[in-house]
Predict the 3D structure of the following.
Amino acid sequence: MGKIIAIANQKGGVGKTTTSINLAASLGVLEKKVLLIDADPQANSTSGIGLDVEAVEIGTYQLFEHANTAREAIVKTDTPNLDIIPAHIDLVAIEIELVDKEAREYMLKKAIESIKDDYDYILIDCAPSLGLLTLNALTAADSVIIPIQCEYFALEGLGKLLNTIKSVQKIHNSALDIEGLLLTMYDSRLRLSNQVVEEVQKHFNDMVFDTIIQRNVKLSEAPSYGETIINYDAASKGAANYLSLAKEIINKNS
C-alpha cells in the first residue's frame, strides 16, 4: 500500500513545490513508483515538471468535484517511475465551491482511495494557505513534510501549522503523522542560516530530517525549463540533496 505524504506550510516561498517535484523525481530514480498530486492553484508543480497548465483538461479540480476518477487524471512524465495529477486552472475556485458541500474535507481522500495501492509514494504539493485545499490534503495523507527555509522568519507561523495538524488529527485523520521538518535554502556562509538550523534542531530534535537542502542555482533554474533537478543536472548539489532526502524517507519507512 502506498504512503501518502502532504508537503505543507502556509508560508509561501519555503520550497514546497521544489521539494514536491524533486523528492518525487528522486524517489522515482530510486525505483519507487511515485504519483505527484498538484493541489496548489498556482500549478507550479505542473509547469515545473514540464506540462502546459493551459492544456490540462482533467486535473485536481475534477478530482475535488468528483467529476472524473483519479485514474483519468493521471499523466505520465519524462522522469522514471513518476506520474502526476496536474492542477487544472479552475482549481482556484474550488475553496468557494466546496464550502457548502457535505464532508468537504474528505473530497481528495475519497478521490484517491482507488489508486493508493498502485504507488509506493503519493506526494501532495499543498497551497500556501491553511484553507480547504490544504485541509483536504492533510485529511488524505498518512504524514506531512514541513519545509522550513533557513531565514529570519523561519519559525513564524510554524506554531499555527502544527496546531492545524493537531486539529486535523483530532477531528479528521487520527493517523496523520509528521514525516519530518525539512530545512531548505541553507547557505553555510550565512550566520543566520546556521542559527536557524541550530534553533530548529534544538526545539524539534528527531522531527528534523538529517538532510538539509542547500541553496543551489541549478535548483532555481530547473523549473523554468520544465524539468526536475534529476533531469536538469543530476550532478548538482541540489540533486544530491534531494536524493539524500529520498533515501532518508525510504529508510525511515522500510
Notes: Strands lie at 3-7, 34-39, 75-76, 82-85, 121-126, 143-149, 177-184.
